Inverse folding.
């Protein structure tokens, strides 16, 4: 049996939640049996604009009445900053610096479920020889996928870009298989590339065996690795665009000739600054979600694995992250940063100014972990035009390069037509050869 993406989510979900608040009724739902049903059930933790809280699911009530076995308790360390978080593994990471702002069991091995598709998208976007406009036909294997799907039938043809949206917005397992087969010829080969790329990113405790996240004991990750992978993805503008999209209208070759996709990530609809990323569920993985938000120039990534209340957890963790990191303009556009000597010029030096304003995220308000290095020539030869790029200011966080800003000539410097200026230019050329 196959399941399509759910019919009610996004704005409709919020209206439903408000209605339930007014009438004072909380619905009861059967325990999830498939990934699609479970993800739908997880997303019934509706947001209430009045109370600022999410409706909890029925897991605890079901357990108390014998409807569902109780899971082992979550270990909460004594020094845990967010003891109400229900996830077994969790992490909040500053995307610029990689600084971990909060974590619980972040290095414990977990099953990623459909958050796998984050790596699927990254790997596909970086595959050479394929493009958004490629026509992709659904194979029998793709069309036979169960769980969350975008209802592909064998032979259906879509632009590759639309499959990316189907994979990330409605968690289409069929789309993830079609993408893998198109990019690598087979799902196993594509999964091998996913693992290889994850290791290159620094996710050393991650291994993939498929492109959609269906359970396999050899398919695993950690909260920390998943945060690293997601932070890497945000460096790609196409990745950022896709995972932050709320709705997408996909054309079809048959009636009704379009399919409207609404993103399953509830935070995109309710959390200020939210701009990603992906939900997931299997029986073995539990409820998982990777979320992200950007405020005041600070980009955060939150990972929640095997949680009871994944939306509550994500909001609490992102809020905590934003309380512990600030955006700070360390360089203003046009600010003089350095100067260099000018050989043979009508002026001895030229000032170097920042081409743009540079804003950095500062975890815990501490700039001491940053180091700035000015990279500029020892001298330049006249003439110099205003705006010429003559160097850059590079910023390192704990020894790792995280940002830079170009340095340009703040004014023009003409040639000085004299014998001494000629000797100066000659000396500059000789010195440059030996330098």
């Amino acid at each position: 049996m196959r399941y399509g993406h759910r019919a009610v989510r996004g704005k409709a979900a919020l209206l439903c939640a408000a209605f339930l608040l007014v009438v004072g009724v909380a619905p009861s739902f059967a325990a999830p049996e498939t990934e699609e049903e479970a993800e739908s059930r997880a997303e019934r933790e509706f947001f209430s604009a009045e109370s600022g809280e999410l409706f909890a699911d029925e897991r605890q009530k079901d357990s108390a009445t014998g409807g569902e076995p109780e899971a082992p308790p979550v270990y909460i360390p004594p020094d845990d900053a967010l003891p109400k978080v229900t996830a077994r593994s969790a992490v909040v990471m500053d995307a610029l610096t990689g600084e971990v702002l909060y974590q619980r069991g972040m290095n414990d091995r977990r099953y990623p479920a459909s958050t796998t598709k984050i790596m699927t998208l990254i790997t596909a976007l970086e595959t050479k020889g394929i493009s958004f406009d490629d026509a992709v036909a659904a194979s029998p294997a793709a069309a036979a996928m169960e769980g969350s799907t975008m209802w592909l039938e064998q032979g259906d043809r879509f632009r590759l870009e639309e499959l990316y949206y189907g994979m990330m917005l409605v968690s289409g397992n069929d789309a993830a298989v079609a993408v893998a087969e198109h990019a690598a010829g087979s799902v196993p080969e594509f999964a091998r590339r996913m693992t290889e790329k994850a290791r290159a990113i620094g996710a050393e405790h991650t291994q993939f065996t498929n492109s959609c996240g269906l359970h396999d004991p050899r398919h695993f990750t950690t909260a920390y690795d998943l945060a690293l992978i997601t932070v890497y993805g945000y460096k790609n503008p196409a990745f950022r665009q896709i995972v932050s999209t709320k709705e997408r209208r996909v054309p079809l070759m048959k009636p009704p000739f379009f399919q409207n996709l609404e993103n399953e990530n509830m935070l995109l609809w309710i959390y200020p600054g939210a701009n990603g990323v992906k939900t997931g569920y299997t029986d073995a993985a539990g409820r998982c979600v990777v979320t992200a938000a950007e405020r005041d120039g600070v980009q955060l990534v939150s990972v929640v694995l095997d949680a009871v209340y994944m939306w509550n957890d994500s909001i609490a963790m992102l809020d905590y992250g934003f309380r512990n990191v600030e955006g700070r303009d360390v360089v203003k556009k046009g600010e003089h940063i350095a100067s260099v000597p000018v050989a043979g010029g009508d002026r001895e030096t030229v000032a170097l100014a920042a081409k743009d304003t540079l804003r950095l995220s500062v975890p815990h308000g501490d700039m001491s972990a940053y180091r700035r290095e000015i990279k500029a020539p020892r001298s330049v030869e006249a003439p110099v035009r205003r705006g010429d790029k003559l160097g850059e200011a590079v910023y390192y966080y704990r020894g790792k390069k995280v940002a830079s800003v170009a340095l340009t000539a703040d004014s023009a410097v003409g040639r000085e037509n004299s014998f001494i200026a000629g000797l100066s230019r000659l000396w500059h050329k000789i010195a440059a050869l030996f330098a």
